Model the fold of this input.
Amino acid sequence: MTIKYFIKKYRNAMTIMLALIGIGLMAYYDYCDTACSYLKGDIFGIDLKWVGIAYMAAIIVFAAFKQTSLVRALLAAGLGVEVHLYAFQVQNDVYCPFCLAFSVMLILSFIINYEVPSAWREKHSRMWIYFLGEVSFPMLKLNKLPLLIFSLLGYLFVLFTFSGSVTPAYGFDSTGSIPSLGKGPYEVVIFADYFCPPCKRIDIKAEPLLKELLATNKVKITFIDVPFHSATPIYAKYYLYAANASPDVNSILHIRKMLFEAAQVKHIQKENALVDFLKEQKIWWKKMDEKQIFPLLSAKIKENNIKSTPTCFIKYSVADIKKFVGDEEIWDGLTALKKHLSSGKK
Done:
């Protein structure tokens, strides 16, 4: 059995399998291993993740009923969409591994369903139009349509309907200052999102180490809450409130631990539920005008080009600033700083 014959025989089954993998990738999109990247997009206000799942579900249905023409047309349109989405990632220099893997599933599906167009043998002068193949819809009396048309339609559709963003930001104007811990010539700035699993891991793991660094009286530590998740601004507000009430190291580290628990264990996204949780944990706060601080957080995020969390900058001097991304890198960076301070180097 040749490869060509095998693919043709099991084409629909293979298409369904690849589509299921694509759905799995999108369902898995919210999970992040060592760093959470900020790359969001929607079409008509619908998260691109759900659009991708619905798209692959349609592929599965048509493949299951052996509607090859519809499958090819959808896959060709998907290629056009992926061209625009990939260009968006290149333009912003932010890459989503799940999105790229999804596009690989789409391309493989297209290759599996590809057949050399008969139009190539009939109209050599227009061969380039059919390089993606052709499709026919006899019921609509449409024959030998170039799949390139569907790719162009897909590209134009996403061009005019897609809305994407790569840099999270808070609103409002600024007149305040970002709370920090400690003072000294060395500075540690940690960018995190309460809904990011690696951020929670490094927060818990590094707490004793951060206290050791502060005890040297040579290190200043600042936490910047990055609003990757839509509910993060609410959490950031109550972090600022709590820091305003109790700015000591133990209180600040404790409130952060509780906020991580609220986000990732309790899955709280509403302000009233968060308030109730914090009261249960006996977290006290003093209200302030958070609108004065949010622009400063946005400026820090933009200034440091934060595209994933957790990200940490360790400043040894004006000319020596090191960047670490992911909980493992950050841990290594913090331990290196501790070793540097212990050695007595300047």
